[in-house]
Structures are given as structure tokens and as C-alpha cells.
Design brief:
- The protein has 487 residues and is an alpha/beta fold.
- The chain folds into three domains: 38 residues; 217 residues, P-loop containing nucleotide triphosphate hydrolases (Rossmann fold), CATH 3.40.50.300; 179 residues, Ribosomal Protein S5, domain 2.
- The protein is 27% helix and 24% strand.
- Helix 9 packs across helix 11.
- Keywords: ATP-binding, DNA damage, DNA repair, DNA-binding, Hydrolase, Metal-binding, Nucleotide-binding, Stress response, Zinc, Zinc-finger.
- This is DNA repair protein RadA.
- GO terms for molecular function: ATP binding; ATP-dependent DNA damage sensor activity; damaged DNA binding; hydrolase activity; zinc ion binding.
- One of its GO terms (cellular component) is cytosol.
Length: 487
């Protein structure tokens, strides 16, 4: 009898290899390849046995209405597309201690007239109860007809998938099930340890199958790697219907819930929360909160009008350019792409003649938000030029636009939405690319907002220099007039 072939699987990306190696050739991770039990091969032929067939329908057939359960937490409902869908699977990832368990505990207790089950594999039931009491989630919110003090959320501490499936596979199964976390579950028929690729993939597949057959909503908590990706194979993200990332700095009070994938709503949507001693509080207007601590007349600061999903968000871009005694100056970036910063520095130096090669550059997106869209290029360049020349950007100015390698400023999407949000918050001027038009082909006009259209990065530098010089001249004239009046 032939010996079964050994199977070595990378625990970071799920790639399989015939032999062990120190480095995964697929994702580049070191010491992540682990031997797993061989999987029986599928028979090569159908051996004459036919299946029962597949039922086909037309595209214009009757579509059942999607049943959603609004949680009552507006920011969470925005990210999920209006609420939790019946029979769907949602994967939530984030750094340890960022607030994933706190958020889900608030979600299940905020649902009205809904039975929920919170299954923890990392904490005891008493720990979850203590957190609920600390957050003020008491027994006042209960099912209709329930007894006084009877909570509609059931708690359990378990890691065996077989036990969890036996508890949920019944006619009176809960409508919402939270698994915290998927990396702690194990199936006894597999030889690998909990958290490995085989265990995570198998446990998730069985839970998702049960959720769709029984019709309850499944919320899975996933650990993340050092790179910020959900631990385990990427196939886990393809198995679920929605993937959410909970972002934020540990020492910062803002938390961002970002939708990376959503089969029942828009992707790249964000929800903003504020961490306090009473849990996570919603932030309905994040633009006003991100700009609440602005200080005027400071060089190296600009305001970017961005779009996160369907929501316009205004954030402050901070840059600091200082001389460096090192042969290789340092570049530090927080909240933005470091490769894109290097490109903008090269464009400023090559196309605009600014000397930045011997300077250290520090860039920060205030508020803990991470920006990914290229429309922030113009605002970043404005902050860099302001810091290098020590000329402050006017406080009533916003900027957005994509920068090309030749220095041209390119158009971006949803310009009118960005401008309306800026006008609502009291901004008076905006720097944007030329030829920006509405969907109907008409030029954009926003009441109360003066538009400064530029086609090249050099035009922005010239405008900033002339604007600051004009303001300085006006301030000097005003001061002399006051002195003359006093005399």
C-alpha cells in the first residue's frame, strides 16, 4: 500500500507545497509552513452515477425580498448596507484590543425583538457579563412577554465546533449568532491545532452552511496578522458575504469600521465610532469631529475633502519638512500610502524645482483615519509646499485632485459631493482640477464656495505664494492704518 503524500500548508496564505520550506514562495512569509494531515483525493470519474440535476430560472424571474434587521446603531447599519441580512455571514477583523467584542456585544443587545447567541472562545461567561454591566447593557431590553430581568442575548463559552453545531442546529435557533473568534474553534476530526488553515476553513464552512440552512445571521470575529490582514487563508474572505475591518490607533479614541466586501450593500463604506468608558459611541458627523482641533496660521496643514463609500469626509493633512543631517533622509507616513508620498516628492522636485532630496518628510492624517484614494494627492502636495516654504494655508481652503507623473492635476469622482460638504462646514474656497463638471456636463457651482481650478502642480504653488503675499500685504496695510488712526 502506497504511503499518503505529505501536505505542507502556509498558515498565512493557504498555499500548499509538497515539502517543507522556511519561506512561503506565494506570500513571502517566514516559518509559516506547517504539515497537515493529507486529504483523500476525489475519485476521477463519475462511474456511471448521475446527479439529481440543477434547477434553472430566468433573469427576470421572481426575486425574494431581502430580509434585513436594522440594529439601531446607525453607523453599523450604514456599513452593512442597512442592517444584518437573514442567512448571511459577516466577518469582522481588527487588531487585538481595538474593540471588536465590545462592538458586537453592543450590536446584539441593541437589536429589538431578536434572540441572539454570543459564543466566546476567548473569554469566560463571567467576563462577558462584567463587560456588559460596565457598558450599561442591562436587562431592561428584553423580549416581549419575557420575565423581568430576562435578557434576549444568550451567552456561552465553547471552542468545540461539534458542540456549537449541536446547540444551533434546531428549529428554535437564535436569529443572530456571534462567534468570538473563529481562530479559537476546532473540529476533533482534524489533526491540526486550532487557528491553522485547515481548522479555520473547515469550521467557517460548517458554520456558514448551518447559517444559510437555518436562516440565522452569523457574525465571525477574525484575528489579524502583523500586516493587518485577517489571519488564515484569503479563501475565508471569499466564503463570507461581508468583510468588515475595525481600524484605529490603540491610544486614539476614534475607531473606523470599514466595509471591504459586501454582497448586500456598497463596499468601502465607513462607520465612525468614539471609544469611551461606556463603550463605542456613534459619530454622525465625522468631518466636524476630525476638524475640531484645528489651529490656524500653522504651516504644513491642509484640509482634504475625501469620499469614503457614499459619505464625504473632511480630514486634516499634516506635513513637516525639516533639514536632515543623514545621508538618507527619513520619510515617515501615518494614515497614507508611503509609495504615493515618494511619488509626489519626486514630482515636486523634478517638475516644480523644489529641493526635497536632503530633507526629512513626516506626513500624518489627523484623527486616525486611513486614506486610500488618489484624490488626496493635491492636498498632500499643498501641505508639503506649505511646510517647505513656511507659508500657512488659508484656513477656509480645501483641496482635492490626483497628481500625474508629469505634474498635471487629474479629475476625480464625486466632486460636487465633496464641495457641498465643505460648504456646509463653513469653507469658502477650494482648489480642484480643471474641467470638473457635473454628471450632466454642466460646470460645478456651489453657493458660497469660490473654486480655484488648476491644471498643473506649479499653478498651485504660484497661487499659494501670491495668496500668502497678498494676505501679508493686507495685514501690513491694516496695521499701519490702525497705527495712523491712533496717532
Amino acid at each position: 500500500m502506497a504511503r499518503p503524500a505529505r501536505n505542507y500548508v502556509c498558515q498565512s496564505c493557504g498555499a500548499a507545497f509538497p515539502k517543507w520550506a522556511g519561506k512561503c514562495e506565494a506570500c513571502g512569509a517566514w516559518n509559516s509552513i506547517v504539515e497537515e494531515a493529507p486529504v483523500e483525493s476525489v475519485p476521477k470519474g463519475l462511474s456511471g452515477k448521475r446527479g439529481k440535476g440543477v434547477t434553472f430560472v430566468t433573469l427576470d424571474g421572481d426575486v425574494p425580498q431581502t430580509i434585513r434587521r436594522p440594529t439601531g446603531i446607525a453607523e453599523f447599519d450604514r456599513v452593512t448596507g442597512g442592517g444584518l441580512v437573514r442567512g448571511s455571514a459577516v466577518l469582522i477583523g481588527g487588531d487585538p484590543g481595538i474593540g471588536k467584542s465590545t462592538l458586537l456585544l453592543q450590536v446584539v443587545t441593541a437589536l429589538k425583538n431578536t434572540r441572539s447567541a454570543y459564543i466566546s472562545g476567548e473569554e469566560a461567561v463571567e467576563q462577558v457579563q462584567l463587560r456588559a454591566r460596565r457598558l450599561g447593557l442591562g436587562p431592561d431590553d428584553r423580549m416581549p412577554g419575557g420575565k423581568a430581568g430576562e435578557m434576549k442575548t444568550e451567552l456561552a463559552a465553547a471552542t468545540s465546533l461539534r458542540d456549537i453545531m449541536a446547540s444551533l442546529d434546531r428549529d428554535d435557533a437564535p436569529e443572530i449568532v456571534v462567534i468570538d473568534s473563529i481562530q479559537t474553534l476546532y473540529l476533533d476530526s482534524l489533526d491540526s491545532a486550532p487557528g491553522t488553515v485547515a481548522q479555520v476553513r473547515t469550521c467557517a464552512a460548517e458554520l456558514i452552511r448551518l447559517a444559510k440552512s437555518r436562516g440565522f445571521t452569523l457574525l465571525l470575529v477574525g484575528h489579524v496578522t502583523k500586516e493587518g490582514q485577517i489571519a488564515g487563508p484569503r479563501v475565508l474572505e471569499h466564503m463570507v458575504d461581508t468583510v468588515l475591518y475595525f481600524e484605529g490607533e490603540r491610544g486614539h479614541h476614534f475607531r473606523i469600521l470599514r466595509s471591504v466586501k459586501n454582497r448586500f450593500g456598497p463596499a468601502n463604506e465607513i462607520g465612525v465610532f468614539e471609544m469611551s468608558d461606556r463603550g463605542l459611541a456613534e459619530v454622525p458627523n465625522p468631518s466636524a469631529l476630525f476638524l475640531a482641533e484645528r489651529h490656524g496660521n500653522v504651516s504644513g496643514v491642509s484640509v482634504f475633502a475625501g469620499i469614503e463609500g457614499t459619505r464625504p469626509v473632511l480630514v486634516e493633512v499634516q506635513a513637516l519638512v525639516s533639514p536632515s543631517p543623514l545621508a538618507t533622509p527619513r520619510r515617515a507616513v501615518v494614515g497614507w500610502d508611503s509609495a504615493r508620498l515618494a511619488m509626489i516628492l519626486a514630482v515636486l522636485e523634478t517638475r516644480c524645482g523644489l529641493g526635497l532630496a536632503g530633507s526629512e518628510v513626516y506626513l500624518n492624517i489627523a484623527g486616525g483615519l486611513r486614506i486610500t484614494e488618489p484624490a488626496a494627492d493635491l492636498s498632500v502636495a499643498l501641505a508639503l509646499v506649505s511646510s517647505l516654504s513656511d507659508r500657512s494655508v488659508p484656513g477656509d481652503l480645501i483641496a482635492f485632485g490626483e497628481i500625474g507623473l508629469s505634474g498635471e492635476v487629474r479629475m476625480v469622482a464625486q466632486a460636487e459631493t465633496r464641495l457641498k460638504e465643505a460648504a456646509k462646514l463653513g469653507f469658502k474656497r477650494a482648489i480642484l482640477p480643471k474641467r470638473m463638471t457635473q454628471a450632466g456636463g454642466k460646470p460645478i457651482r456651489v453657493p458660497g464656495l469660490a473654486l480655484v481650478e488648476i491644471g498643473h502642480l506649479q499653478e498651485m504653488i504660484d497661487w499659494l505664494y501670491n495668496e500668502v503675499r497678498s494676505n501679508a500685504l493686507q495685514a501690513t496695510v491694516s496695521a499701519s492704518r490702525q497705527q495712523h488712526n491712533k496717532g
